[in-house]
């Protein structure tokens, strides 16, 4: 962390020194940018000017190859007026390095961060004006990447206008047009953005695919919102290309790890995956939503969102799996509002199964079993109060009030499932409600009641000792009563076995 002295020094330099210094010289125009940024190479194999590890603002070896602009002496006249000396100093190699570094630093550390504030439009005006005046000095890749991070399309467009006067940009743009495969470097950023802007006009499928691949490899410098605006903004609405971009960006193996941890991006991909006629859409959705997918842990998942989407798409099996996962996930299980939302949706889905579906004389027994199990599970592990007997009774009443209420087979099926799934105690509490509401006949209840009592007996036996151990225990007790032994006799081990050992503390 910076000390107080460092913070004060930065504040002094940025707020007091920089504004005065910027007014002390006449900035070069965009067309003269080539005098400040001597080209470092002619191909894509050269290292770009933007290196994240060096704070993004180093000038490299710009002082070499300045062709007569790096010295003040030589054959020039010894006497010069002040204006000539200043103009020569502005083109001196060392001065160029320092000027470009400082102006880029001021732009990225002082002006651009203000775009995250409340007065974005005013700050954006200032930033655009700064680019128009001092753009020749700006380090293009880092400024463009930062503008993309701040989602300032206006500033991105202004920087791309500036890029037309950058020699490196023009060289890369030409090579990208003819190269079939390139490895991304930061110096390519402006050229890739230009190719992206021209994507709607590109008719060649292979070229379009290559542009999408470049955008994927350039993430996070090329932000998804830029691709979205190009593909789906304005007159063009090419959601197919945008979906292809997201699928490649979020691919579990070939995609970007950081992108898969962007929750909003993953949610957008899931929504688009469920669109009608989407190739591989269902399988892509399952990669994220299903806990049985081998890839689901690679993504930052919003389980509430996935649950709601699954329900809206009538994917009930996925829905109940997600409810179960929410209950088992501590970050969700400790949130009463989240669990209440899941409980409400679970109740709505179960009522739909009992009221709407029985019109076709069918009842999904497997689904009903899962629902009743989840009611019990929520009641056991969650901070919200769940009356399992009431929930079960409400479902039974809904069935009895449905158009198929006279179908004894459906009623018997429901009661069998209830007796088999929920605990005997909750089953009996559910039946107690029927005596006052007269919702079930004796013929319907007796088989279920028999099953409930059987389950209760099995449960009781499970809680007791096994029959063999029970007989041994009874024999020991009978023998102890027939042959009482004085306390505190025998060796330590026998007294311990008989439970007669005492220890003085």
TrEMBL record:
Alphabetized UniProt keyword annotations: Coiled coil
Q: Which residues form a coiled coil?
A: 72-99
At the top level, the lineage of the source is Eukaryota
What's the protein called, per UniProt?
A: Uncharacterized protein
What species is this protein from? Cyclophora tenuis
Q: What are the top taxonomic ranks of the organism?
A: Eukaryota, Sar, Stramenopiles, Ochrophyta, Bacillariophyta
């Amino acid at each position: 962390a910076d000390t107080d002295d460092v913070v004060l020094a930065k504040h002094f330099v940025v707020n007091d020194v920089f504004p005065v210094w910027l007014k002390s010289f006449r900035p070069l125009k965009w067309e003269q940018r080539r005098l400040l940024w001597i080209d470092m190479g002619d191909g894509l194999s050269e290292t770009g000017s933007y290196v994240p590890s060096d704070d993004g603002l180093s000038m490299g070896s710009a002082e070499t190859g300045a062709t007569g602009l790096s010295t003040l002496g030589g054959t020039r006249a010894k006497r010069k007026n002040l204006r000539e000396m200043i103009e020569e100093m502005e083109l001196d190699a060392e001065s160029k390095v320092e000027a470009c570094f400082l102006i880029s630093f001021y732009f990225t550390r002082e002006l651009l961060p203000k775009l995250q504030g409340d007065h974005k439009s005013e700050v954006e005006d200032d930033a655009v004006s700064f680019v128009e005046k001092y753009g020749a000095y700006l380090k293009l890749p880092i400024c463009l990447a930062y503008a993309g991070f701040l989602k300032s399309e206006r500033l991105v467009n202004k920087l791309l206008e500036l890029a037309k006067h950058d020699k490196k940009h023009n060289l890369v743009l030409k090579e990208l047009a003819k190269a079939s495969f390139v490895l991304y470097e930061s110096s390519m950023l402006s050229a890739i953005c230009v190719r992206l802007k021209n994507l709607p006009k590109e008719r060649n499928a292979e070229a379009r695919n290559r542009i999408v691949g470049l955008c994927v490899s350039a993430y996070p410098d090329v932000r998804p919102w830029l691709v979205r605006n190009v593909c789906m903004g304005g007159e063009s609405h090419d959601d197919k290309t945008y979906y292809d971009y997201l699928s490649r960006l979020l691919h579990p193996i070939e995609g970007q790890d950081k992108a898969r941890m962007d929750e909003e991006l993953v949610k957008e991909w899931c929504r688009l995956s469920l669109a009608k006629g989407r190739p591989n859409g269902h399988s892509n959705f399952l990669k994220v939503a299903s806990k049985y997918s081998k890839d689901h842990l690679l993504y930052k998942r919003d389980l509430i969102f996935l649950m709601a989407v699954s329900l809206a798409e009538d994917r009930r099996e996925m829905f109940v799996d997600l409810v179960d996962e929410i209950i088992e996930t501590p970050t969700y299980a400790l949130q009463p509002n989240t669990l209440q939302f899941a409980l409400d949706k679970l109740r709505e889905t179960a009522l739909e199964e009992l009221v709407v579906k029985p019109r076709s004389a069918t009842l999904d027994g497997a689904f009903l079993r899962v629902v009743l199990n989840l009611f019990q599970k929520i009641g056991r592990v969650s901070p919200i109060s769940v009356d399992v007997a009431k929930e079960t009774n409400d479902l039974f009443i809904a069935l009895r009030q449905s158009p198929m209420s006279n179908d004894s087979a459906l009623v018997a099926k429901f009661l069998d499932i209830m007796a088999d799934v929920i605990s005997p105690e909750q089953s009996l509490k559910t039946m107690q409600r029927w005596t006052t509401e007269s919702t079930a006949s004796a013929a319907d209840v007796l088989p279920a009641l028999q099953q409930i009592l059987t389950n209760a007996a099995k449960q009781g036996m499970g809680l007791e000792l096994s029959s063999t151990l029970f007989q041994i225990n009874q024999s020991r007790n009978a023998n102890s009563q027939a042959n009482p032994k004085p306390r505190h006799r025998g060796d330590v081990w026998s007294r311990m076995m008989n439970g007669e050992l005492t220890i003085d503390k």
